[in-house]
Amino acid sequence: MVTRKKLKIVNIVKQNYDTRNYTNRSILYNNAINLRHFRMKKLLLGALLLLSMFGFSQEKAFVRKYNYSILENSETFNRATLTVVFNYNGTKDVMFYLPGSQLYLYRVSDVTEGKTKSGSPYQVFDCINSDGGQEVTLQLFDSGVLRVFMGGDYIEYHQD
Questions:
Q1: Are strands 135-141 and 146-150 parallel, antiparallel or unpaired?
Q2: How far lies 4's CA from each of 1, 14, 17, 60, in Å?
């Protein structure tokens, strides 16, 4: 026979079961939301990291000023005034400022590092002249010397 005491216990158990069930559903729902937020945070963090890499991958511009030039097979230095801006305007292009004119070179290759037979380190890369589309190769030595190869010949520029 069912007494009030037993009925009360059954109701308490039933109530606890319903509450526990509701709590479990609530926990599952909260976990699903937290997982979604975690994935969104991870995606956002990845996007920010990617954007920051693009921002920092732009190389900083630097300027070199040259006062002397020498032709490939010559032994005499000529007085020259040349200012070269590498990584011009945040791009990897090069701008030459000559007396009374400018020359813009589009960089079309990656920078390759090397050493001469005597051990002088340098960087070399290919460009295209913006005016005539002529191919130009620039070789920049760590000592500051710049060689400009055009049409099989080169001009070498030196600083003071």
A1: antiparallel
A2: 10, 15, 20, 85
